[in-house]
Amino acid sequence: MTLKPEVRYLDRTTPPHISTLILLAALPALSMNMFLPSIPAMADDFSVDYRVMQLSVSLYLAMTAILQLLIGPLSDRYGRRPIILWGGAIFIIATLGCILSPTAEIFLAFRMLQAVIATGMALSRAVIRDMVPGAEAASMIGYVTMGMSLSPMLGPLVGGILDTYFGWQATFWVLMILGVMLLALSWVDLGETSTTKSTSFSAQFKQYPELLLSRRFWGYALSATFAAGAFFAYLGGAPFIGKELFQMNAIWLGLSFGAVSAGYLVGNFISGRFSTRIGVNRMILFGTAIATLGISCSLALFYLGFDSPLVFFAFMPTIGLGNGMTLPNANAGMLSVRPSLAGSAAGLGGALLVGGGAAIAALSGSLLTVESGAFPLLWLMAGCSALSFVMILYVIGRERALA
Hints:
CATH superfamily: MFS general substrate transporter like domains
Shape: globular
Number of strands: 0
Order of helices and strands: HHHHHHHHHHHHHHHHHH
């Protein structure tokens, strides 16, 4: 029987409280989602095409992917605490740069630097795996991401309101203030949880092949990547669909993103409540099936001529629900492949997930035109969800063959 470590709130000599882990995961999600309703207005403000401002999504994700390749080994070498604290400080500076940017190019440069806040999301999972094992980690990750999902559920709506009444810069002022508050909380509550450190930074990178040669790791990682890819495709394409095809304003766009996040909240609650009982693989299987079925229904109705905003957005919460069931369990699966490499696994798995998401978000933005309608986006989301389902079937089949 594994004993849980003692946790005392606001005591940096003990592991962090679960509320701190939730907030560490929440701010990166908020940074990704909160400004989305403002993209059309920002394109007008900077006098650039929508596709240029849409790069603020795909470039952010690409930089997040690159950073996560470094975050894992750095945290395994130097500890979780210093990496999270430095990430928070750099995020504050980058957000101020976004606010003061005179051109779209300078904004995009600072936007890429903002991605450093991904340290909180990636390492909150590694901290959990340091604290508790296996299915219990999946359950705890589920609860953390359930709490975290409130930020993308409410963030786009708040961002839409801020954009409508105060301009897009107001959203980034709020993000900067939240960054300062989270950095202060992390300083006083985030105790170090990594107990083993490699002798050198390069030694951590040399351990990556051990993960890359694991078929189980690839199965879990690709299932998570394709599941999240459906959501990232939505992030890249939905602002265009809402504004150009359905003439929705920023507030209604914010509500549509919130609906997806509401599904994610429910999915994470299910993960937190049932992962230990049902098992990681079955939870992923159910989650990927729900997402695939939901988006397929929306696509079918569009082909039948029901191409309305209600039909498009009504099925999107199934993507959130499916991801809420899939991602915590797939992350726990990745981290359990080599427990001694939890930080590296979190970083590498996160890089694959977010790097794939960056490519898919960019693809979704480039495929959409007024003439094409929503079909390219729906097909892309359906394809990603189906591939996620196939990947977890592969993991299950391999484990049965080895049993």
